[in-house]
Design goal:
By secondary structure, the chain is of the alpha/beta class. It has eleven helices and 20 strands. The longest helix has 18 residues. It binds S-adenosyl-L-homocysteine.
Length: 396
């Protein structure tokens, strides 16, 4: 049987030579050997030089994702195990189990395994398969990750829309170890949070904000805090531990707010707190009309622009909430504002926030630029991996 392979159009090997892991369908001249969805293919330049091996994804505009750029490296279980072990080892070195028991173990392309995300919550691993290639290897990947990590309980949360782009249906459920408990009580920098890995957002918790939540403790001392898009209280609890004077937390999800309240009790935190169910866009307007002020505002909205196509609408959303937040800040107040939209670059985000400050009539300076935690690494060859952008601003 002939080798299964892709041959690139002339001049289209440039991104491959830069080791970008994605190959778009428009770059492919020929598909040889009828590879199945997710199957490993050799990739050749138009001059028939072998450039590496990739997972074929016939339904997606990202028609292949590279496993390796070494023409001689074999993609087999031993290859997968090396990647899994290296990612696990890196996390072991980064995290102190006595303080933090939940973090990302595998961050897809940036850990060399495109389409696989794995998060650890105590003795559970929660997996998300988002590409045809990862799906193709799912059984070995599950088994080998259990081996590499020594964690046997595995739950799947492949309930993400991107799977449809790869022709994959959504999938959730226990993969090993039976049904997980309704809540796992994880530790993050010494703070306890209850996490619902079956129904919570993402794989249960916004792990990417861990360092920024820790930083909140430093910023919040004696402040009147407004935490917008609070989910289960991540930034609220950090502000409480940091000595905030009072905290208002806003979210549209009643379940998330209930858990937030419980999380406060779980940690014995007594900071005066209000949990408000509502649409942040409306709540901020109401507070503005009431002429209320705050010393520290957090804006951590959901992804307004998953891809570049929705950027304009997203920009309006970001501008709106940032403008309102600037108006609600007392003199000398701090704004920590985030965007997790892949389609909005750090530079564009800074410009949107600058426009909001201008329209709000405030002078603001950037004190710090923030990003995702070190368990969400960004391969230098894969800038798309850097999606979380944050600014700490102070108004004068
Ligand atoms: N800062 C949080 C994560 C925020 S995720 C943490 O550290 O854990 C975004 C949150 O925004 C989700 O909880 C979602 O329920 C909420 N949300 C989405 N749209 C909203 C809206 N228009 N108004 C209020 N909350 C909203």
């Amino acid at each position: 049987m002939p080798e299964k392979a892709l041959v690139l159009k002339a001049g289209r090997e440039k991104s491959v030579l830069l080791r970008h892991p994605w190959l778009f369908s428009g770059a492919i001249a020929q598909v040889i050997g009828e590879p199945a969805s997710g199957e490993t293919v050799s990739v050749y330049s138009s001059r028939m030089e072998k450039l590496g091996s990739a997972a074929f994804s016939p339904q997606s505009s990202i028609a292949a994702r590279f496993w390796t750029f070494d023409p001689d490296e074999k993609v087999d279980e031993s290859f997968l195990y090396r990647k899994l072990q290296s990612a696990w080892q890196a996390r072991r070195e980064l995290h102190d189990d006595t303080q933090t028991t939940a973090y990302r173990v595998l961050h897809s392309e940036s850990d060399g395994l495109p389409g696989l995300v794995a998060d650890r919550y105590n003795e559970w691993l929660v997996l998300q398969f988002t590409s045809a290639g990862a799906e193709y290897w799912r059984e070995p990947l599950i088994r080998l990750l259990q081996q590499a990590s020594g964690i046997s309980h595995v739950y799947e949360r492949s309930d993400v829309e991107v799977r449809s782009l790869e022709g994959l249906p959504e999938r959730t459920g226990s993969l090993a170890g039976g049904e997980p408990p309704q809540y796992l009580t994880i530790l993050e920098n010494g703070i306890r949070y209850q996490v619902d890995i079956q129904h919570g957002h993402k794989t249960g918790f916004y792990l990417d904000q861990r360092n920024n939540r820790a930083h909140m403790r430093v910023l919040a001392k004696d402040k009147r805090v407004l935490n917008c898009f609070c989910y289960t209280g991540g930034f609220s609890l950090s502000a409480a531990v940091g000595g905030a004077r009072e905290i208002i937390s806003v979210d549209s999800s009643l379940d998330a707010l209930e858990l937030g309240k419980e999380n406060m009790h779980l940690n014995g935190l007594k900071t005066p707190s209000e949990w408000v169910e509502g649409d942040v866009f409306q709540v901020l307007r109401k507070y503005r009309d009431q002429a209320r002020t705050f010393d520290l505002i957090v804006l951590d909205p959901p992804k307004f622009a998953p891809t570049a196509a929705q950027v304009e609408r997203a920009a309006r959303g970001y501008k709106d909430i940032n403008l309102l937040a600037f108006k609600l800040l007392a003199p000398g107040g701090l704004l920590t504002t985030y965007s997790c939209s892949g389609g909005v670059s750090a530079d564009l985000f800074r410009k949107i926030v600058a426009g909001a400050a201008l329209d709000a009539g405030v002078n603001a300076v950037v004190l710090e630029r923030l990003s995702q935690g070190e368990d969400h690494p960004v391969a230098l060859t894969f800038p798309e991996g850097e999606y979380l952008k944050g600014l700490v601003l102070r108004i004068n």
